[in-house]
Amino acid sequence: MPNEKKKEHAMHRVAAPLNPAGHARSWYTATATAFPAFSPLKGAVRADVCVIGAGYTGLSAALHLAEAGFKVVVLEAARVGSGASGRNGGQLHSGQRRGQDFLEKAVGREDAHKLWNLAEEGKALVRSLIARHDIPCDLREGLILADHKARYVPDSYDYARTLAVDYGYDALQPLTRDEIRALVGTSAYYGGLLDKGAGHLHPLNFALGLGSAAVAAGVEIHEGTRAIKVTDEAGVTITTDGGGSVVADFLLECGNGLMDGLDRRVDAHVMPICNYIAATEPLGDQAQEIIANGAAVADSRFVINYFRLSADGRLLFGGGESYRRGLRPDVADFVRPFMLRIFPQLGEARIDYAWGGVLAITMTRMPFVRRLSPHVLVSAGYSGQGVALAPLFGKILAEAVQGQLSRFDLLGRLPVPPFPGGTLLRTPLMMAGLSYYALRDRL
Question: Which of 50, 159, 355, 404 is deepest in the core (most CB within 10 A)?
Fold first, then answer.
């Protein structure tokens, strides 16, 4: 039950600017807003709800629960926003990770429309959280969906018409080959769509802003505290690597790809992979030639190239994935060839920052949102769509804790089968499949 009066949890805070320990050295951390450090959990604490993971999902869930009067404890293995939430491309996409045609076949037209409306609410929630909590995260409007093969362009135009006619979404502007070349300084694309209802932001500052809002609402955050065991009986007991523990009525597992090994029920459906981003030196006048309208860009490859300009005129370019455990040590050298295939004119541009991060995928690329027991809920596996979806899904987890289940149950109907071969074989089998699609991108 929620506390009748919110309790103060200031004693564990350490007044300090953002400490890079636990964060990748990135352009995001170099431009992060000041943020306090939080001490690891010591001893045993009691909470109404324990949240694992201080990223978008966990922080949003914690914020909404605290605002409803619940005592919430968040356990973060590293730092607030140090996972995918603080390392990603910052792109705010429309829709779910898969198109509405896929969803209509998978869950029916009625639920597909509900899922589209949820995704629209997700974008609106991001914008409202930024406005309500005055989060300085460089939100900009516009996202270009770029087709790297000519035969994809008619399908993009058809999809835009479908969304306009069947879903009432008229923010998609078709782009011809000449029009996309006028916006993006490359000959690599044959057309596409400009989504005027999407956009991009500074993902780490957005996460830190959510963290600040959650703490102000009374949430207790413990960094440097990894959950290592969950005992799920009458309530839930979460044991941590430092010997501390949390006893709670509910547990929300929101650590995405960084929870691997904690809960086999999640591991069977969610697999961590690594993705990489490089940031060039400031490009000056050349920045306008790279992306004329300042929109973000994501292309049609299975292994997506995604890029945008930073507030100080750098190109932030995401390209390439790896499926082995651990991040690559040679990120700049790994990403540069992907960048130069799109922008050969940047051959002399210096790369000032390069970093990687762990995200999570599922077999269908749809999020795994489930009730694992009467006391344990999970939301993970956003497959690259987490900026728009994760804050909303955190809010929906908070609704479920309060007994409002209709939206949670809708997400639970998303088809997310287990990986073939279980956790032992998921990585080699997925590596083979994903490598095939990566090869197909080049054909």
Answer: 50
